[in-house]
Amino acid sequence: YEFRLKYEPTYELVQNDIGMNVTQFAAVGPVSYIVTDLRYGNVVPVAVGLDENKSMFYRAVIFTRTNLNITSLSELKGKSFAFGSYYSTQGHLIPLIMLEEAGVSLKDFREYAFLGSHQLCAEAVISGRFDAGAMQDLLAFRLAREGLIKIIAISKPFPRSLIIANKAVDKNLVENVKKALIELEPLGSHSTLTLWSMTEFPGGFAEPIIEHYTIYYELVEKYLLSGESK
Which strand (E) or helix (H) includes residue 16? Predict the structure, then answer.
């Protein structure tokens, strides 16, 4: 098989491409998978990405600068806050849940914005443009080790990002792609293919457990598609 890579600058374009069969496979977060499924009804999970410990779950992190005296989520009231993309699982959906559980709503912020990526969110907080923000766990832990950010809260585990396919793709091709992904050994014989530690899938891939993702349907409908957080 011959594949061509297509990079899109936004989550929305990725959702549209895979939903319209412009691209046949896509690496997406759970929110984009659910949104695409709800809007188009024609995508299927192929493989779930794993972290370096071979876990199918990840966490979101809410953080601030090291020189700010913010130690709890409740102290974010009246502060400015940076999210990643609107359709980001770790950069928006999970942090919204964390904030709600701590009694903090969007109207409690002095200002908030969606910056489009975890990296831009980190840079905005570190530079002083925003007081706090939300991002994915692996990047947050690395920046915290480097002394660039202070972690305020870490979420409970949620099912990780995955590879999905459009249902129009030949089933044999989907199965062969799944087999190839699952057989990848980023921590072993395939460690030199790319810099795996800088990807979302440093531990490779595994068979997705569909039931893990059912929790997202209600969450996406409540927090994102209802327009409550826009």
Answer: helix 11-19
Contacts of 206 (CB under 8 A, 6+ apart): 47, 48, 50, 54, 56, 182
Report the distance separating Cα 92 and Cα 82, nearest Å: 9
pLDDT, tens digit (0-9, with 9 covering 90-100), for 28-39? 999 999 999 999
Q: What is the largest CA-CA distance in the chain?
A: 56
Residue 123: band (very low, low, confident or very high) from pLDDT cuts 50, 70, 90: very high
Per DSSP, helices labelled H in 20-154 are 30-40, 94-101, 118-126, 137-145
Place of tokens 């903090």: 104
Q: Are 25 and 180 in contact (CB under 8 A)?
A: no
Domains present along the chain, CATH in parentheses: 57-154 (3.40.190.10)
DSSP annotation of 110 reads: S
What kind and span of H or E run contains 26?
Answer: strand 25-28
